[in-house]
Amino acid sequence: MEKLKSNLTNMVCVLTGISVICGGLLAYANNLTEAPIKAANEKALSDGITAVMGGGEVKVETPDTIKCDVDGKELTYIMYKTDKGTAVQSTDPNAFGGNLTVLVGFNEGGDILGYTVLENNETPGLGAKCPDWFQKGNPGDIIGKNPGKKELTVSKDGGEIDAITASTITSRAFLRAVQQAYTIYKTHTDGATGATKQNS
Fold first, then answer.
1. Which of 2, 95, 158, 189 has the least C-beta neighbours within 10 A?
2. For residues 173 and 111, what is the distance between their CA atoms, to the nearest angstrom?
3. In Å, what is the CA distance from 125 to each residue of 54, 55, 74, 107, 173?
């Protein structure tokens, strides 16, 4: 068999062929993993809603998506009405590692029932402690607090919440996300009855 001559045309053809094959393999792998990833994300969200509403059976209505301008950035919030209260998904884009997304559960009075962290790119061993640091019984415990009665801020800024050690930026971002979740909840829900207000 005669060896291909090394010239520009042959090199371009070989590289194009390799690129087409690799692209096809990537598309095939993406197609195979898309459904399992979607199912895993849906299960994580369902488990998160159950956790922030205190566990047990939770009936969830069709979610409301709300877009708001916060500090010049358009942020998207998702509100899940349940038979036990309301869960709000909120993101703060100014955490140390970028986006920090939380899901916070509120009862009809606006008290925090629970929270879970859905997206966290914080430093392992420091800011990455936020999924546990603010839970009941831990140093930054926010469970049972009502952000409408007293804004959630770290003690370094005059508030009552202990920041994660050496992670004040992450702690501030977390508390801003929770506070904004409460604002969305109160703005789009009648807290006394739990009835969703009409979006304009």
1. 2
2. 20
3. 27, 28, 31, 32, 17
The SS3 call for residue 8 is helix
Residue 66 near residue 75 (C-beta atoms within 8 A): no
Give strand pairing partners of 86. 81, 106
Give the 3-state secondary structure of residue 29. helix
Tokens of 122: 């914080």
Q: Tell me the C-alpha distance between 51 and 171, whole Å.
A: 21
**Shortest CA distance to 181 belongs to which of 79, 113, 100, 109?**
79
What the block records as the tokens of 86 is: 């309301």
Among candidates 112, 111, 95, 139, which has minimal Cα distance to 103?
A: 112
pTM: 0.75
| SS3 label, residue 183 | helix
Instruction: Give the closest residue to 191 by CA, choosing from 107, 104, 78.
Output: 107
**84-141 confidence digits (pLDDT tens):** 999 999 999 988 878 899 999 999 999 999 999 998 876 676 778 889 999 999 999 9
